Each structure stands twice: as C-alpha cells, then as structure tokens.
Fold Cytochrome b5-like heme/steroid binding domain-containing protein.
Amino acid sequence: MALQELTYQDVAEHNTKKDLYVVIHDKIYDITNFVDEHPGGEEVLLDVAGQDSTEAFEDVGHSDEAREALEPLLVGTLKRNPGDPKPKTPLPGAVSPAANNSSAGLGVGLYAVVLLGGLVAFGAYQYLQQQQSQQA
Ligand code: HEM
C-alpha cells in the first residue's frame, strides 16, 4: 500500500482501540492489530493513541526487535502544519534532519556557553595576576 501523508489532525482521528494510529519519529503506524500483542500492555498504547508517541517509545528503550515490529505497521508519514507540535526527542544519530539540527544546535550552543565562560574566567585570572605582579 502506498504511504499516505497525514497531518496531526488526521492521525488524531484514529484514537480508539479499534482504530489506532501513533506517530513515532514523524512516521505513522497503524497499531490497531498490535495493541493486544504489545508486551508492555495495551494501556500505554491507548494513552498515546492518535498522538506523537516518539518520546514514550524512546523512553522505554525498546529493543531492535521492537523497532522491527514497527516496520510492517507503517502506513504513512507525518505532514507538519505551522503551529503543530515540534518533533520529539530524536534517536541518537537519527535520520530526521530537522530533528537532528535542533538537537545539534542546542549541543553546540551549550559548548559555546561553557567555552566562553572558561575564556572569561581565564582572562580575569590573567588580568589579576598581571595587576598583582605590577604591584609587587
Ligand atoms: C507503537 C509501537 C510499539 C511497539 C512496536 C512496541 C513493541 C514492544 C516490544 C516488542 C516490547 C518487548 C521488549 C522489547 O523488545 O523492547 C515492548 C515492551 C514495552 N513497551 Fe512497547 N512498543 C510500542 C510502543 C510503546 C509505547 C508508546 C509505550 C509507552 C510507554 C511502550 C511501553 C512499553 C513497555 C513499558 C515495555 C516493557 C514491558 C516489560 O518489559 O514488562 N511501548 N514494546
């Protein structure tokens, strides 16, 4: 079956046990027939029915097997509209370029702040040393 492009609103309509879609890493899965098989129980899946469950899925630390179990359930990809929630936490080294950029941006930003703080402290230390040696 060809993959559909669905919006959040479309996915949100599939939020019952008999018709259950979830979004994981911007891909849409029809997990209706998987709910009863889920080793983690149906409750957690019903909690995220029709929603982005990337975070919930990744927080559990699902195995490669679990990821493989997703493949046959794929029905489409997510089409983000302006104002939709941002992508959830990406996989380490994830394929989604948008998600990757945002996390890389934060990482680099954080390094920059730490580095800058270090430089300022070092500069101040040097300055004080110089002042002291001039006084002596
Ligand atoms: C929608 C696609 C999902 C699939 C295909 C899936 C698949 C699996 C599989 C195969 C396992 C067995 C352990 C493993 O191989 O990692 C598992 C365990 C588990 N899953 Fe999921 N899962 C999905 C979504 C979720 C979500 C959204 C949650 C939300 C919290 C969740 C919570 C859990 C928990 C708590 C376990 C551990 C159960 C235990 O060890 O007692 N799963 N899942």
